[in-house]
C-alpha cells in the first residue's frame, strides 16, 4: 500500500535518512523502532509531504506522492497523528474535528464519522466546546487521533502516541489502535515503548542513525537479542 | 468641564481609532499567520488612497465605486506580494523576511513618488465637507462613513475568522503551522488569502481616510507606524487586540491632544509602546492569534 | 561602409549635443540647489527646484554668464531636516566643489546650514523667515524672503485694518518659525485690541488636525490664524477647520499662499487673505518671461517658492557677471551689496547683513485665484 524506495533526507548538510526503503501492506500494522534522533519522525514527515526527500521515491497505492503537498496526500487517505500532537490550543474540540474533516474523501457522511469518533473517545463529546489547550495530555492525544480520523484515513501513521500518557491511558490507546485497525485502517506506528508497539504490530523496522538495520516480523523482533538489549532493556 | 468638547473629542478619537483598527487588523493577521512583521503594510494604505484617486480621475467613476475598486485591486495585489516577496522566503530567518518587507516598502514608496508625483493630492469624496450634527457633536459625513464601513467590514472579517472553515484554517495555521499542514490545510492558500485580506483592509482604510486629509506617496509610513503602536498595545497577532488597541489609541490620542497638546498626542503613542514593552510585552491581549 | 556611416552619424550627434555655442569648452558655473526632495516638504522642494531650473534655462538660453559659461544646478536632498541640510552643504563644497549655494527653504535647515558655509561660500537662503538667519549670518550669506518680523509687522497692520477680528486663535507649527509667529502676532494683534484666545502647536509630520481645531473652535474665536509652510498640512488644516464646523474667518500665514494650496483646500480657502512677495497678476516683464518658460517645462502652477528659487539664480547670475568671477565670494558678496537688482519679483536690495528688502503685496483668494489688493 505504501512503499519507500531509497529515501535520502537532509537537514542542510546533516543527513537524517539514508537509503531508507520500507513497505506497508494493506491491512497491516507495522512499527518503526529506533532510539532518539534515529530519524523516525523525519521518515513520517517525509511520507506526509512536510519534507521533500533529496533522493528516492515514495509510492502510495502505486502512485508517487513524494512531490505532493501535505493536503493532497491527506486527500488520498494517508494521514498522520504527529509527535507532540500539534493541536491548536485556542481552538475547541469541535473546531479541530471540523477542520480535520475538510479534506476527507469518503462515502461515509461527516456525522457518521463524528459519531464513530465520539463513541471511540466519549470524553471528546463531553469536552466538545472546550479549547484544546485546556485538555489533559490523554485527552489531547485522543483529540489528535480524532482529528486525524475525521480525514477518513485509509492509512494512519502515529508518531509516539503514548508519550507522556498515564498507564490507564496507554491501555486505552492500545485498544483504540486495535479498533481502528479492525475497522480497516492500515497502521504505521512509531513508539518509544517498543514492547507495546511489537505487541500490536505484525511487522517492524529498526532505524539507526538514518538507516534501516533490521526488518522482521513482530514475533521474531520480540525475541531478537539485539532488540532485547537495545530497546527492551532486558 | 465642557461636556460638549469632551463628547466631540471622544467622537474624533473613536473615528480615528476605527481607522487604526482597519490598518492594524491586517498587520496583526499577517503576523499571526505568517510570523512576519510586514513593514510594507502602510504602502497598501497609500495605494488604496491613490488608486481611489486615479479610478475617479481616469475612469470617471464616483467615489464609492472607486473605493470598492481600489480595495479589491489592493487586495488582489496581496496575491502578488505574497507570491514574490513572502512565500519564497517562508523558510528563511525572520530577519531576512523583515528586510525583504522593508525593501518592498521603499520600492513602493519610491515607485509611487515617480509614478504619482511628490505633490500632495486631494481625494475628493462627496461626503467630506458635509457636516452631520448629532446633538452637539459635529462630524462630517465622511467620518461617519469611515466608522460605519469599518464596523461593517471588521464585523464581517471577525465573523469569517471565527465561524467559517477558512477562518478555522487561518487560526490553525497561526497556532500551529505544522499541525495545520498535517490536518490538510493548504498553507500557501492560507498565506495568500491572509495577504489579500490584510492588503484589502489597508487599502480600504486608505480609500476611506484619504479624503479626510491630503494624500501623498509617503503617507504609508504614517499608517504603518500607527499600526505598529496598535499591535504592540493589543498584542502581536491578536485580532481582538487590534480592535481594542486601535480604539484605545484613537481615544487616548484625542484626549491627549484635546486636553494637553498635539506634541503630547504624538508622544503618547511612543510612550504606550515603551510602557507596554516594559510591563506587558505580550500586549493587552497576550496570547497570539486568537 | 556601414562603419563609416555609423562614425559620421556619431560625430553629427556629438556636434548636435554640443550645440552652436562658441564657448562650448568653458566650464559651467556650478550652483548647488539644496532642496527637500523627500519627506513632508518634498512637493515644495520640487516647486522651488523647478523655479530655479526655469530661470537657469532662461539665463543659459541668453548665452550664460561670464562670457558664455552655462549655469549648472547640482541638486541635493535636504529632506527638510537640519542634519541632511548640513551634510548636503558639506558634500556640495568638499566633493562637488560648487561655486555658490542656494538652499535654506526651512528655517531650521537654514539655521544649521549657515554654520557650515560660514565665511566660506556664497550662500543664498531662500524661503526661511527666521530673523537669526541673517541676524546671525555671515559675510557671504544672503537671504531673499522677508523675515517673519518684516512680514508680520506689515501683515499685523493689514489684519488690524482690513480683517478686523475681535478675537483670534492660532494654529502653528511647533518649531522655531511657529513659536516666533505666535510671539509676533500676540504682540501685534494685541496692540490693536484683538483678543488672543489661544494657540495650538502641531507637529511636522501631523496629518490630522481635527483634535486641535475642535479645541480652538470651542474657544469661539472670530478668526483662526493658520501658520503652515507645508502645503499639504496647510490645505488639510483649512479644510478640517471648516469640517469641524468653524464658520469664522481664516487667516493664512504670510508667504504661504500658492496655487496648489488653492487646488487642495478648495472652497475652504475662498476669501482668505495673506501677504506675499509674489503677486501673480503683476506686469513685471521678467516675471512674465519666467512664467512662460516655467509653463513650457513644468506641469505645476508657478508658485511663490518657485519665484524665490528663480530670484536666487537671477541675482547670483547678475552679481557673478558684475564681479567678473563665479568663485571669489568676496567679490560676489561686494557686488551683491553694491546695487539694487531688478528681478522677477520687482527691485530688491540687500542690507549690510545680507537681508533682502523686497516688496510685500496684500493678496487674497478670489474665485479660486490669487489677486493682489491695491
Ligand atoms: N528541523 C531540523 N533541522 C535540523 N536537524 C533536525 C531537524 N529535525 C530533526 N533533526 C535531526 O535529525 C535527526 C533525526 O531526527 P528525528 O526527529 O527524525 O528523530 P526521531 O527518531 O524522531 O527521534 P525522537 O525519538 O527523539 O523523536 C536528529 O539528529 C535530529 O537532531
Ligand atoms: Mg520523533
Automatic annotation (TrEMBL), chain A:
Listed A to Z, the keywords are:
Amino-acid transport, ATP-binding, Nucleotide-binding, Transport
Q: Which Pfam families match?
A: ABC_tran
Residue span(s) of domain ABC transporter: 2-234
Which InterPro entries is this protein grouped with? AAA+_ATPase, ABC_transporter-like_ATP-bd, ABC_transporter-like_CS, BCAA_Transport_ATP-bd_LivF, P-loop_NTPase
Molecular function GO labels: ATP binding; ATP hydrolysis activity; branched-chain amino acid transmembrane transporter activity
Q: Which SMART domains match?
A: AAA
**Could you tell me the superkingdom of the organism this chain comes from?**
Bacteria
Any GO BP: L-amino acid transport
Q: Which family does it belong to?
A: Belongs to the ABC transporter superfamily.
Name of the protein this chain belongs to: Leucine/isoleucine/valine transporter ATP-binding subunit
Originating organism: Prosthecodimorpha hirschii
State the gene name recorded for this protein. livF
Automatic annotation (TrEMBL), chain B:
Q: What family does the Swiss-Prot or TrEMBL record give for this protein? A: Belongs to the binding-protein-dependent transport system permease family. LivHM subfamily.
| Location(s) in or outside the cell | Cell membrane
Q: What is this protein called?
A: ABC transporter permease
Keywords (alphabetical) are: Amino-acid transport, Cell membrane, Membrane, Transmembrane, Transmembrane helix, Transport
Is Heme one of the keywords UniProt gives this record? no
Q: Name one GO molecular function term.
A: transmembrane transporter activity
Q: Which GO terms describe its biological process?
A: amino acid transport
Task: Identify the taxonomic lineage of the organism of origin.
Answer: Bacteria, Pseudomonadati, Pseudomonadota, Alphaproteobacteria, Hyphomicrobiales
Q: Which CDD domains match?
A: TM_PBP1_LivH_like
Name a GO CC annotation attached to this entry.
Answer: plasma membrane
Instruction: Provide the transmembrane region boundaries.
Output: 20-37, 44-61, 67-85, 97-116, 144-161, 195-216, 228-252, 259-279
Q: Which PANTHER family match?
A: ABC TRANSPORTER PERMEASE PROTEIN (PTHR11795:SF452), BRANCHED-CHAIN AMINO ACID TRANSPORT SYSTEM PERMEASE PROTEIN LIVH (PTHR11795)
Q: How does it sit in the membrane?
A: Multi-pass membrane protein
Question: InterPro entries attached here?
Answer: ABC_transp_permease (IPR001851), BCAA_transport_permease (IPR052157)
Q: What is its main location?
A: membrane
From TrEMBL, chain C:
Tell me which Gene Ontology terms the entry assigns under biological process. Answer: amino acid transport
Supply the InterPro entries for this chain: BCAA_transport, Leu-bd, Leu_Ile_Val-bd, Peripla_BP_I
* Pfam short name (any one): Peripla_BP_6
Q: Where is the signal peptide?
A: 1-23
The record's keywords, sorted A to Z, are: Amino-acid transport, Signal, Transport
* The keyword Transport belongs to this UniProt entry's keyword annotation: yes
Q: Which residues form a coiled coil?
A: none
**Which residues belong to any copy of the Leucine-binding protein domain?**
28-369
> Family assignment?
Belongs to the leucine-binding protein family.
PANTHER family according to UniProt: LEUCINE-SPECIFIC-BINDING PROTEIN, PERIPLASMIC BINDING PROTEIN OF ABC TRANSPORTER FOR NATURAL AMINO ACIDS
What is the name listed in the Swiss-Prot or TrEMBL entry for this protein? Answer: Leucine-binding protein domain-containing protein
Per the UniProt entry, what species is this protein from, by scientific name? Prosthecodimorpha hirschii
Amino acid at each position: 500500500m505504501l512503499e519507500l524506495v531509497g529515501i535520502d533526507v537532509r537537514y542542510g548538510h546533516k543527513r537524517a535518512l539514508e537509503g531508507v526503503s520500507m513497505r506497508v501492506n494493506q491491512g497491516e500494522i507495522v512499527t518503526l523502532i529506533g532510539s532518539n534522533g534515529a530519524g523516525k519522525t523525519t521518515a513520517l514527515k517525509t511520507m506526509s509531504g512536510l519534507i521533500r526527500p533529496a533522493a528516492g521515491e515514495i509510492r502510495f497505492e502505486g502512485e508517487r506522492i513524494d512531490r505532493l503537498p501535505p493536503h493532497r496526500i491527506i486527500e488520498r487517505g494517508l494521514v498522520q497523528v504527529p509527535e507532540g500532537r500539534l493541536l491548536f490550543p485556542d481552538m475547541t474540540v469541535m473546531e479541530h474535528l471540523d477542520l480535520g474533516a475538510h479534506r476527507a474523501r469518503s462515502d461515509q457522511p461527516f456525522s457518521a464519522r463524528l459519531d464513530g469518533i465520539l463513541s471511540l473517545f466519549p470524553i471528546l463529546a463531553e469536552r466538545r466546546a472546550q479549547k484544546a489547550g485546556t485538555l489533559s495530555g490523554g485527552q489531547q492525544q485522543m483529540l489528535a487521533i480524532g482529528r486525524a480520523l475525521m480525514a477518513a484515513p485509509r492509512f494512519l501513521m502515529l508518531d509516539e502516541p503514548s508519550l507522556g500518557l498515564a498507564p490507564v491511558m496507554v491501555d486505552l490507546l492500545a485498544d483504540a489502535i486495535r479498533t481502528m485497525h479492525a475497522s480497516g485502517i492500515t497502521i504505521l506506528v512509531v513508539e518509544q515503548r517498543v514492547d507495546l508497539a511489537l505487541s500490536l504490530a505484525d511487522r517492524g523496522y529498526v532505524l539507526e542513525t538514518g538507516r534501516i538495520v533490521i526488518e522482521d516480523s513482530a514475533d521474531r523482533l520480540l525475541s531478537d537479542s539485539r532488540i532485547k538489549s537495545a530497546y527492551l532493556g532486558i | 468641564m465642557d461636556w460638549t468638547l469632551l463628547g466631540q473629542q471622544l467622537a474624533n478619537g473613536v473615528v480615528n481609532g476605527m481607522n487604526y483598527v482597519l490598518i492594524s487588523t491586517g498587520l496583526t493577521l499577517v503576523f499571526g499567520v505568517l510570523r512576519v512583521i510586514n513593514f510594507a503594510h502602510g504602502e497598501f494604505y497609500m495605494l488604496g488612497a491613490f488608486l481611489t484617486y486615479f479610478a475617479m480621475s481616469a475612469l470617471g467613476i464616483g467615489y464609492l465605486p472607486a473605493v470598492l475598486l481600489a480595495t479589491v485591486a489592493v487586495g488582489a495585489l496581496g496575491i502578488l506580494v505574497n507570491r514574490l516577496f513572502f512565500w519564497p522566503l517562508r523558510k528563511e530567518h525572520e530577519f531576512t523576511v523583515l528586510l525583504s518587507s522593508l525593501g518592498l516598502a521603499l520600492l513602493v514608496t519610491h515607485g509611487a513618488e515617480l509614478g504619482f508625483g511628490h505633490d500632495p493630492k486631494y481625494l475628493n469624496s462627496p461626503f467630506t465637507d458635509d457636516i452631520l450634527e448629532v446633538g452637539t457633536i459635529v462630524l462630517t459625513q465622511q467620518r461617519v462613513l469611515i466608522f460605519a464601513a469599518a464596523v461593517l467590514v471588521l464585523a464581517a472579517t471577525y465573523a469569517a475568522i471565527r465561524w467559517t472553515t477558512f477562518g478555522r484554517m487561518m487560526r490553525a495555521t497561526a497556532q500551529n503551522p505544522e499541525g495545520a499542514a498535517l490536518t490538510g490545510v493548504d498553507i500557501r492558500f492560507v498565506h495568500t488569502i491572509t495577504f489579500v485580506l490584510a492588503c484589502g483592509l489597508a487599502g480600504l482604510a486608505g480609500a476611506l481616510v484619504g479624503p479626510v486629509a491630503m494624500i501623498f506617496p509617503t503617507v504609508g509610513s504614517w499608517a504603518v507606524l500607527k499600526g505598529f503602536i496598535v499591535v504592540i498595545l493589543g498584542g502581536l497577532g491578536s485580532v481582538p487586540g487590534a480592535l481594542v488597541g486601535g480604539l484605545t489609541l484613537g481615544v487616548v490620542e484625542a484626549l491627549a491632544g484635546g486636553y494637553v497638546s498635539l506634541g503630547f498626542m504624538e508622544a503618547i503613542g511612543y510612550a504606550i509602546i515603551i510602557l507596554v514593552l516594559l510591563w506587558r510585552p505580550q500586549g493587552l491581549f497576550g496570547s497570539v492569534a486568537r | 561602409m556601414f562603419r563609416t556611416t555609423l562614425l559620421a552619424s556619431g560625430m553629427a550627434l556629438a556636434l548636435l549635443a554640443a550645440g552652436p555655442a562658441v564657448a562650448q569648452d568653458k566650464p559651467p558655473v556650478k550652483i548647488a540647489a539644496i532642496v527637500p526632495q523627500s519627506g513632508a516638504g518634498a512637493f515644495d522642494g520640487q516647486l522651488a527646484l523647478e523655479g530655479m531650473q526655469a530661470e537657469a534655462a532662461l539665463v543659459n538660453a541668453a548665452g550664460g554668464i561670464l562670457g558664455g559659461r552655462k549655469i549648472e544646478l547640482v541638486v541635493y536632498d535636504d529632506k527638510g531636516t537640519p542634519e541632511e541640510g548640513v551634510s548636503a552643504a558639506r558634500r556640495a563644497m568638499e566633493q562637488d566643489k560648487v561655486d555658490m549655494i542656494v538652499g535654506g527653504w526651512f528655517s531650521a535647515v537654514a539655521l544649521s546650514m549657515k554654520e557650515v558655509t560660514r565665511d566660506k561660500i556664497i550662500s543664498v537662503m531662500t524661503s526661511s523667515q527666521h530673523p537669526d538667519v541673517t541676524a546671525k549670518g555671515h559675510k557671504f550669506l544672503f537671504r531673499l524672503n522677508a523675515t517673519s518680523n518684516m512680514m508680520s509687522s506689515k501683515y499685523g497692520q493689514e489684519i488690524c485694518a482690513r480683517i478686523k477680528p475681535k478675537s483670534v486663535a492660532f494654529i502653528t507649527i511647533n518649531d522655531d518659525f511657529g513659536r516666533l509667529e505666535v510671539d509676533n502676532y500676540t504682540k501685534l494683534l494685541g496692540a490693536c485690541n484683538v483678543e488672543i484666545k489661544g494657540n495650538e502647536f502641531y507637529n511636522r509630520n501631523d496629518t490630522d488636525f481635527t483634535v486641535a481645531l475642535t479645541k480652538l473652535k470651542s474657544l469661539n474665536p472670530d478668526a483662526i490664524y493658520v501658520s503652515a509652510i507645508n502645503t499639504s498640512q496647510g490645505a488639510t488644516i483649512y479644510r478640517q477647520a471648516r469640517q469641524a464646523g468653524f464658520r469664522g474667518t481664516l487667516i493664512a500665514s504670510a508667504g504661504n499662499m500658492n496655487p496648489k494650496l488653492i487646488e487642495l483646500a478648495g472652497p475652504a480657502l475662498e476669501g482668505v487673505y495673506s501677504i506675499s512677495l509674489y503677486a501673480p497678476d503683476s506686469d513685471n516683464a521678467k516675471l512674465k518671461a519666467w512664467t512662460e518658460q516655467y509653463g513650457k517645462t513644468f506641469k505645476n502652477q508657478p508658485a511663490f517658492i518657485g519665484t524665490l528659487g528663480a530670484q536666487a539664480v537671477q541675482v547670483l547670475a547678475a552679481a557673478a557677471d558684475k564681479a567678473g568671477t563665479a568663485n571669489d565670494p568676496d567679490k560676489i558678496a561686494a557686488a551683491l551689496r553694491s546695487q539694487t537688482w531688478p528681478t522677477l519679483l520687482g527691485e530688491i536690495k540687500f542690507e549690510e547683513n545680507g537681508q533682502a528688502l523686497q516688496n510685500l503685496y496684500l493678496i487674497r483668494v478670489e474665485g479660486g485665484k490669487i489677486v493682489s489688493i491695491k
